[in-house]
Design brief:
Layout (H helix, E strand, L loop, with lengths): L10 E5 L8 E7 L2 E5 L4 H12 L2 E2 L2 E6 L6 E6 L3 E2 L3 H9 L2 E2 L8 E3 L9 E3 L7
Parallel strand pairs: 5-8
Antiparallel strand pairs: 1-2, 2-3, 4-7, 5-6, 6-10, 9-10
Bound molecules: iron/sulfur cluster.
Iron/sulfur cluster (SF4) binds next to helix 1.
């Protein structure tokens, strides 16, 4: 879900990470129109547009486990999260405690802070 609503002012050099070529893409707001240059393909153009308008990141962190073989389990979001929501998401994760046993890929927090993203386990964890 991406809103095209507001185009930020200014310009940015964005390194495309969609493929290993790593093109450097220039994105600029020229009188409300996005000018994108330097990409070699459409996927790169789309990546640079999103990164300029509404950057998102896969979040990786850990969650406390009440009765686990280890006290923490590594987790990640199953879809990229808007950058401005990362702090709020981390706070929610910090106050969460889950129970072992856990399987890699288990959803530990569904629709975290009302986003269209789940926090999932990055590994298995057995009980203590
Ligand atoms: S613009 Fe296209 S070719 Fe260049 S890094 Fe991105 S995906 Fe790869």
């Amino acid at each position: 879900m991406m809103s095209e609503s507001k185009i930020p002012e200014g310009n940015k050099e964005i390194r495309c990470i969609v493929c290993p070529t790593g093109c450097l893409v220039h994105v600029e707001n020229v009188n409300g129109e996005l000018v994108i240059e330097g990409h070699s393909c459409n996927r790169g153009e789309e990546y640079a547009r999103e990164e300029f308008i509404a950057p998102k990141r896969i979040l990786t962190t850990t969650i406390r486990v009440e009765n686990g073989f280890l006290p923490l389990i590594p987790v990640r979001s199953d879809t990229p999260i808007p950058k401005e929501k990362l702090q709020e998401t981390l706070k929610e994760i910090a106050v969460t405690e889950v129970k072992a046993p856990i399987k890699m890929g288990d959803i530990l927090i569904k629709n975290v802070i009302g986003l269209d993203a789940n926090i999932i386990a990055s590994r298995d964890l057995i009980e203590a």
